[in-house]
Amino acid sequence: MGWELTIENVAGIREGSARIDPGNNVVRAANWQGKSSFLQAIETAMGTAAPLTENADAGRVELETPDGTHVVELERRDGTVVSSGSGLLFDEYDRIRADLYAFLDEDNAIRDAVRRGEDLADLLTRPLEFENIEERIAELRSERSSVDAELSNAEDAASRLPSVQEEVTRLDARLEELRERRESLTEPDDADGEEAEREELSRLRAERSRTERRVDRLSDAVERIEGTLAELREERESLTVPEEDVSEELSWIRDRRESIRTDVELLRAVYSANRRVLTEGRVELLTDRDRGLLGDDVACWLCGTETDEESLRERLEDLSDRISELTAERAEYDDRVEELEERRDRIRNATKRRDELDRRIGDLEAKLADREESLESAREHLSELERRIESLEETVAERDEEVTDVASDLARVETELEERREELEDLERHADKRSTLTDEREALSEEIEELRNRKTEMKRRTREAFDEAIADLLDRFDTSFETARLTSEFELVVARDGRTASLDALSEGELELLGIVAALAGHEAFEVGEDVPVLLLDRLGGLSAGNLSTLVEYLDGRAEYLVFTAYPEHDALEASVVDPSEWDVVSADASL
């Protein structure tokens, strides 16, 4: 399977797509058809370039590989092109190596330095700056120090092995002596009775230990309960419950407040209706009006008495005052209700807390009595056990003091022997590591030395790769110079007629060939092909069709994908063809 590329606004390609297959791929087209831009699009997908098309605000490259899809977005921000996305090469070390030694377009730094006759030392060793050699050396030294410490422990273990082995042998012999002595002491006829007494003594001691632990637990429990009881009793004594009942007063005030509320609502209704009749001058709706010179007389619509509107208004004012009085009285009752409810809640809470304290105190007192009774019983049982153990110990001690001593010695020797055997096994395990640790230390030292000599070694490998490549290419190309080499300082030197010649005297094609060979030397020395699957080649106008074909044949197999550009007349090249005829490219004025 190959790679599929989709391109939008990258270099001179506004829109286009293409497929490249494993092996050799040629982008064949005339000038200004997007050949170089296609290679720049591949570099963008790799993550080493960001050539956004001029006057475009955004662009993208999508690279679909058998292992997944990679999309790189380009955006112009404040006059700067910003790249984002998941390029195929995400490690800076890989990108630097690819840009220098795999992407051999016209702007390749090594090709350009050869054209200009500049020093190649910095370019051919630049990846070393990203290898963090000193940091890696420090890490390896730290690891070697740890190995040294382990190795020292292993050597010490090996030196201690003989003495520990001798101690194990001595303890084995002593253990056998003690076992024989124990057997001789347990041969009498009453051995069964003595064994039974010992078993009983062991059982009583175990029961005593359990009883002692039970006494301790019960003592702690009694102490905790007594402490809690003291706290609760203190709180109970300090708790005061008011001896009063506010419920009757509260009920009466609530009833009175409700009665006032009803009266106020009724009076407000009467007041509002009569006031509206007088305010709107609609008295005739309710009674007759007699108009006179000094004023209108009306009959009260409730009692029928003759009166006037001013008197009615005065009566309404009296009614308003009465409503205000009742409202104020109801507000007083509201305050009194709130006060009484607070008092009632305090009384309830205090009563509830008192009852809860009385219950908890009662429960704890019962629990304390139970624990104290259990504690007393346990102490009595413990005293009985102590008496029985003391009596049995005296009986056993009189008959088997020596057996006890032998058993004690036997247990001690068994424990010591087990410890020494474990120590012996541990020492043997550590001693056995010496060879492995020595090899590991030597490997770490070799790696440290390799890192120390990394720059020198890479220079040597680069020069050797250059020498091999130039020798191979000189057999294939008819050049005007006889040989070329890189000095120890990476100065490019060519020889013609047995003497050093100036680079200025070489043809354009020869300079391009030397630049490519120098880059390929870095490609070989830094093993770029293991991490960068593509090799790009562009702007080889200085090479004839035959020489281009020879170069492609020489490069075949150096990368999984080889992509190069060629003119239409170079139609004899054996490679998969990338046809740019369907691409939307910038006009010829853009000078692709």
TrEMBL record:
Which keywords are on file for this protein? Coiled coil
Q: Does the keyword Ribonucleoprotein apply?
A: no
Listed Acidic residues bias regions: 186-198
For the region Disordered, give the residue spans.
Answer: 179-203, 417-445
Task: Respond yes or no to whether keyword Disulfide bond is given for this record.
Answer: no
NCBIfam families, per database record: ASRP
Which family, according to the similarity comment?
Answer: Belongs to the Sph1/Sph2 family.
| Protein name per Swiss-Prot or TrEMBL | AAA domain-containing protein
Species: Halorubrum cibi
